[in-house]
Design goal:
The protein has 449 residues and is α/β, with parallel strands linked by helices. It folds into 3 domains: 39 residues, no CATH class; 114 residues, Aspartate Aminotransferase, domain 1 (Alpha-Beta Complex), CATH 3.90.1150.10; 259 residues, 3-Layer(aba) Sandwich (Aspartate Aminotransferase, domain 2), CATH 3.40.640. The strands form 5 sheets. The protein has a 7-stranded mixed sheet, with helices on both faces. Helix 6 runs parallel beside helix 12, helix 7 packs parallel to helix 8 and helix 12 packs across helix 14. The two termini are 50 Å apart.
Length: 449
């Protein structure tokens, strides 16, 4: 792009201060091949009402979940969010709150984070939870880093049924930190226990599996725990769909050392890849090795309840070059959404959400499997996601579904080409019986053409 130097006295002074004669001098390090050699072709300025009409029209070109029935999961899930959640979370005293380093003026936010940690422990069955991380993938990474320790050496064994994006994030960190990743193969859509047993060795620091896994199938987590703990490795359970914890056994009940999860399902809206919220919980043994911060409850000199930052043991601003994590913040607003959501539902409501997901998904799978050419990919128990083989290219099926106002399943061939043409469908409590029946009718029409 060509810039015309600004000749105002203020900007000229700024340029002189950095040793430049013009804006072009500042851009000199940028190769000319990637610079636009002309001025931007911008339309004339618009009045505020005209600009609003223009932007509204452009926004309406996007698909949204108000007009499409979505059966897409694979890490982000369309759940019903009670109106009380955004109503309370968007109050200005919460919405504008920042990192609570000064407890004397941050009691409200500190209490929210404390309640968030408590709720995460209750649904996961773990002893302690931190104040949140960026997303599920970085939570899994932080679990792996905790396992390999400050030296960053050893081997982390990962199931191939772990979310592909999580595995990609792990590979990036493994390359930088120096530990080794070993993937374990699959047997009928779940982790192969024989391959896992063969992969374990004296250098194994952690075993990471997802429950339910990326295909929605339920892993034999108790058998995996027994195999893992025959070594000194940590058993890390990743969860991308925490709504499953309303009906499935919590990881703490089957021997998990760490739980790394994505919290988007818990009261947070679904968007173009976000926002996301990382959950990380552990047994008490590892409390001082957790990243981020932990909020605790205490009493002041007058005996009144107060909340404080209890631990910040691994953060860069505390340990500087000795830090083993760069997590120096928390997703406080999203953690607030999760806290209000879980508190509003309560134990019974949380269970009911999980039960609805379970029943509706199984109804959908039975109906879709009856469509000619569609068949279950795996014969495994599942929660609210299931994989099916398609008689036509998965991309073509999805394209035709979109024409009928339906967002189809995830195309598994993107990450698992060996599976052939297959779709991963997700059905949450947000989908109605009519939504499911309309999907089945659309699939029948597609295959009959």
């Amino acid at each position: 792009m060509t810039y015309v130097p600004n000749t105002t006295a203020e900007q000229s002074e700024m340029l002189r201060a950095v040793g430049a004669r013009s804006i072009e001098d500042l851009l000199a390090p940028i190769p000319k091949a990637v610079r636009l050699p002309r001025a931007l072709k911008l339309p004339a300025a618009l009045s505020e009402p005209d600009l609003k009409r223009l932007m509204t029209g452009m926004a309406e070109l996007n698909a949204d979940l108000d007009h499409y029935a979505s059966f897409l999961g694979a890490g982000s899930y369309d759940h019903v969010v009670p109106s009380v959640v955004p109503h309370l979370a968007k109050r200005s005293e919460f919405y504008t709150s920042y990192t609570p380093y000064q407890p004397e003026v941050s009691q409200g936010m500190l209490q929210v984070i404390y309640e968030f940690q408590t709720l995460v422990c209750q649904i996961t069955g773990m002893d302690v939870a931190n104040a949140s991380l960026y997303d599920g993938s970085t939570a899994v990474v932080e679990g792996a880093l905790l396992a390999v320790g400050p030296g960053g050496r050893g081997e982390v064994v990962v199931s191939r049924a772990l979310d592909p994006q999580y595995r990609a994030t792990l590979r990036t960190y493994a390359h930088a930190r120096g530990f080794t990743l070993r993937e374990v193969g699959l047997a009928d859509g779940v982790t192969s226990l024989d391959d896992l047993e063969s992969a374990l060795g004296p250098e194994t620091r952690a075993v990471i599996v997802q429950q339910p896994n990326f295909f929605g199938a339920l892993e034999d987590v108790r058998a995996i725990e027994r195999l893992t703990h025959t070594t000194k490795a940590l058993f890390i359970v990743a969860i991308t769909e925490p709504a499953s914890l309303g009906v499935l056994a919590p990881p703490g009940s089957y021997g998990a050392d760490l739980v790394a999860a994505e919290g988007q399902s818990l009261g947070n809206p679904i968007g173009f890849g976000g926002p996301a919220l990382g959950l990380l919980a552990s047994r008490t043994d590892y409390v001082r090795r957790l990243p981020g911060r932990l909020v605790g409850r205490t009493v002041d000199e007058a005996g009144e309840t107060g909340y404080v930052l209890t631990l910040q043991t691994r953060e860069q601003h505390i340990r500087r070059e000795r830090a083993t994590s760069n997590i120096c913040t928390n997703q406080a607003l999203l953690a607030l959404f999760t806290t209000i959501y879980l508190a509003a539902l309560g134990k019974r409501g949380f269970h009911d959400v999980g039960a609805l997901c379970l029943r509706k998904a199984h109804y959908a799978q039975s109906r879709i499997s009856a469509v000619p050419g569609f068949a279950p990919l795996f014969a495994r128990p599942f929660f609210d996601e299931f994989a099916v083989r398609t008689p036509l290219p998965a991309e073509q099926v999805n394209a035709q579904l979109r024409e009928q106002g339906i967002i189809g399943g995830y195309e598994l061939g993107r990450d698992y080409p060996e599976l052939g043409e297959a779709l991963l469908f997700c059905v949450t409590e947000a989908r109605t019986r009519d939504d499911i029946d309309n999907l089945v009718s659309a699939l029948e029409e597609i295959v009959s053409q």
